[in-house]
Amino acid sequence: MEFGSPGFWVALMQIIGINIVLSGDNAVVIALAARSLPPQQQRQAILWGSGAAVVMRIGLTIVAVELLRLPYLKLVGAVLLLWIAVKLLIPEHEEEGSGKAVGSLSSAVKTILIADLVMSLDNVIAVAAAAKGSLALLIIGLAISIPLVIFGSTMLLKLMERWPVIITIGAALLGWVAGEMAVTDPLITAWVEANAHYLHWVAPAAGAIFVVALGRWLAARTMAKAPALVELGEAAAVAAAPIRPASARPGWLTRILLPVDASDNAARAVEYVIAHLRAHPTPETVDIHLLNVQRPVSGDVSTFVAKEALVDYHREKSLQALERPRKILDEAGAKYSVHMLVGKPWEVITDYAGAKQIDHIVMGTRGLGSYTGGTLGSVALGVAQRSPVPVILVK
Length: 395
What we know:
- By secondary structure, the chain is an alpha/beta fold.
- It has two domains: 6-223, no CATH class; 230-394, HUPs (Rossmann fold, 3-Layer(aba) Sandwich), CATH 3.40.50.620.
- It is 62% helix and 8% strand.
- The protein has 16 helices and six strands.
- It has helices at residues 6-22, 24-34, 39-67, 73-88, 105-119, 121-131, 135-151, 153-162, 165-183, 189-195, 199-223, 264-279, 299-304, 307-332, 345-355, 378-386; strands spanning 230-233, 255-259, 287-294, 337-342, 360-364, 391-394.
- It has a six-stranded mixed β-sheet with strand order 1-4-3-2-5-6, sandwiched between helices.
- Helix 16 links the parallel strand 5 (360-364) and strand 6.
C-alpha cells in the first residue's frame, strides 16, 4: 500500500477510529487508577503508565501483524473480530469493584499497565487487521490515535456517552474490517482474486450488517432483564421533601421525578417544573425528586478498580451533572431532594418512579447520554414506553 494513496488514508482512518472506540474502557481505568494520588503524581502515573502501555501495545500489534500472514489465522481473527464488534453493542452490567485501592505512584502505573495488557486484545487484533500488513501504516495510526485516547480520554468518553451512535458506527467498522480480513487470508485469497473478486466488497458489507443486526438483537434481550441498581447516596437537599397532604388539589403535579443531566434539554425540563410551581396554588405541597443516573462501566474496568474508587467516580460525575439543574432550582427558591443512581437510565428512572409513588416524570426529550434517531432520545423513548406514571417530555 503506497503512502498517500486513497487506500492508505482509508486504512489510517480505520485504525484511528478503532482505537478511539475500543480504548474507552482503558481510558476509564487510567483515570480511576490515578485519581487517589496527589495531583502531581496523578500526571506522572498517567504519563508513565500510558507510555509503558503504548510501547507494549505497539509491540503486541506488530507481532499480530506478522502472525496474520500465516494461513487460517486471518479467518480465525475475522470470527474473533466479529464477536468483539457484537460485544461492543451489548450493554454490560457493572460488577462490584474487585481491584485493590491504589496508594502509590508505582502501584498506579502497575495497574494501568496490567489493565491495558488484559483489555487490549480486541484493540490489537482490530488494528492489526486494519493495517493490512503495512508496518508504516500501523505505526503512524497508533502514533496519532493513542495520544488522542490518553490525553483526550475525558472528551472522547463524553462524546461516546452523549452520542452512543459513535459506538454503533465503530462496531460496524469492526464488522467491515473483519470481512476484509477474512477474504485476504492466504488460504483463500488466490481463489477470491480469480473467481470472486466481488467478495472484497460483499464480505465487508455483510460483516458490518451482521454485527449491527446481531448486536442490537442481543442488546434488546439484555435490556429486558431487571437492572442492578447502585445507590450512590443522596446529595444534600435544599429542604426536606414534603409529604403530599390529603388536601392537594387534583390536576396539579404533586410528586415529580425530574431526571436530569447537564444538557440544555434537562435545563428546560427544570424550568418547566419551576413554571409549574409558580402557577401552583399550593407550591409547598409539591415534592420534587431530582435524579441523576450514571451509566455503569464495563465489567473489565471493575476488575482493576476498587469498589470505593468506582463509587467515587460515579458520584463525582453525578454531582457535576447535577450542578446546573440544582443552580436553576436554587435560584428559583424551589424545595427538592437529590438522588444519584447507577444503571441503565430508562430502567432506573421508571423503577424509581414506581418505587417512590411518583405521579409524574418530567424530563427533556434528549440528553441523559442518549442517541436519537428520531425526535426522541433513546432514554426519553425508553422511559415513555416503560413508565408506570404519566411522562411529560420537554423540548
